[in-house]
Amino acid sequence: MLAGLLLAAPAVWAQTTTVKTKTKTKTAAPAPAAQTPAPPIDEAKIEAQARTLTQNLKQALGLTPLQEEKVLQINQRSIRQVEVARLQYRQDLRKLNGIIDDIGGSRLTLLKDVLTPAQFNKYQQAREKKMGVPNVQGNQGNAVPGLPPGRGEE
């Protein structure tokens, strides 16, 4: 009798596993359908944004034709990377923000290599003003409480 149960157990086990496999297969099949497929990247939109951004930099910084071409390539690459990241990490905003920061840092480094020091300084100042980054004086904080204003500036 015990031998019969031991021989029957694998058959029961196999049936249970098969049923679970079928259930898992049925459950797993609708999951991809539930996720919305990522929309394709709009290359025309990327191109238009890159050209507009490059044109603005050309006017603001007086880019040479060679600089303009290099800046356009940098902008196209950066905008494309941001769009890909937005699609890939749309559910994880913390990760997306980190990647966008990395892309921005990389773009800044590439622009620094293309622009003259004077152009880059002008660009940095405009960028800081636009993004609300305080200058060095603004970073020094408030006066010490109890001291008259202007103290220490002599």
Q: Outline the low-pLDDT stretches.
A: 1-19, 25-34
Query: Gap between N and C termini, in Å?
Result: 103 Å
Count of extended strands: 0
Q: Helicity range of the residues?
A: over 70%
The secondary structure category is mainly alpha
| Average pLDDT number | 77
Radius of gyration: 30 Å
Biggest beta sheet summary: none
* Discrete helix count: 6
Residues in β-strands, percent: under 5%
Order of helices and strands: HHHHHH
Q: Could you say which overall geometry the principal axes of the C-alpha atoms support?
A: globular
Region (Disordered): 19-40, 127-154
Biased composition (Low complexity): 19-36
Describe this structure in words.
The chain is an all-alpha fold and 154 residues long. It has a domain at 43-131. It has helices at 2-28, 30-34, 43-61, 65-88, 93-114, 117-131. Helix 3 crosses helix 4 (65-88). The protein is globular. The N and C termini lie far apart (103 Å).
Explain the layout of strands and helices.
Blueprint: H1 2-28, H2 30-34, H3 43-61, H4 65-88, H5 93-114, H6 117-131
Helix pairs in contact: 3-4, 4-5
Short overview:
This protein is mainly alpha-helical and 154 residues long. It has a domain at 43-131. The protein has helices at residues 2-28, 30-34, 43-61, 65-88, 93-114, 117-131.
Key attributes of the depicted protein:
mainly alpha; globular; 154 residues; 0% strand; 6 helices; single chain
